[in-house]
Amino acid sequence: MLLATCLYLLIYFTIYERNFKGIKIAITTTFITHFFSFLLTIIVNPGIPDRKYYYHNYIKTIEKVDKKKYDKCKICNIITPKILNVSHCYYCDVCVINQDHHCTCLGKCIGKNNCILFYLSIITIPLYAIMCFVTLISYVIYIDDENRQIRKFGRRKY
To answer: Which of 18, 21, 33, 109 sits at 20 to 30 Å (Cα–Cα) from 91?
Structure first.
């Protein structure tokens, strides 16, 4: 994330003095989307069920109702309905609803609440890299064209 921010600032201060409006809008939109999706992935609760709520509401019903509808985590001792598809993360030592995986880069589980944000963040990384590459290539072409005009006419074309 730090590398992406430094690259964006480098492009902002070198290329944005020129008149590349389409590239400015595209790269800024991609950077902002990546930054906020990455930040929200870290901040949002991945789907850790409230232990008190599920314990108190389902402990009474599990004795009365069929046990095939409920799961009990052997580590957390939390009782949840099977519909929620709760699985235990051994890295975080919590149960997570619809757990996709534990991301070691973020140090956090990817579950029900932050899965879309995580994949949006992952998708915008190559888009941002492509945008930076295109921007730098267009800048080099623009500078080369400007230098040719200076050599040919002895001044810049305004």
So the answer is: 33
Looking at residue 115, what is its pLDDT?
Answer: 92
Average pLDDT over residues 129-150: 77
- Please tell me whether the overall predicted TM-score, pTM, comes out greater than 0.85 for this model: no
Determine the Cα–Cα distance for residues 26 and 132; give it in Å rounded to an integer. 10
- Give the tokens for residue 54: 């599920």
DSSP helix/strand/coil, 155? coil
In this structure, which amino acid lies at residue 144? Answer: D
Q: Measure the CA dihedral 10/15/21/25, to 10°.
A: -10
Q: Residue 98, Cα to own-chain centre: how many angstroms? A: 18
The CA-CA-CA angle for residues 82, 72, 50, to 5°, reads 80
The residue-averaged pLDDT of 59-64 equals 58
Nearest to 100 by CA among 113, 109, 88: 109
- CA dist 138 and 130 (Å) reads 12
Instruction: Spell out the residues 6+ positions from residue 115 whose beta carbon is closer than 8 angstroms to its own.
Output: 98, 100
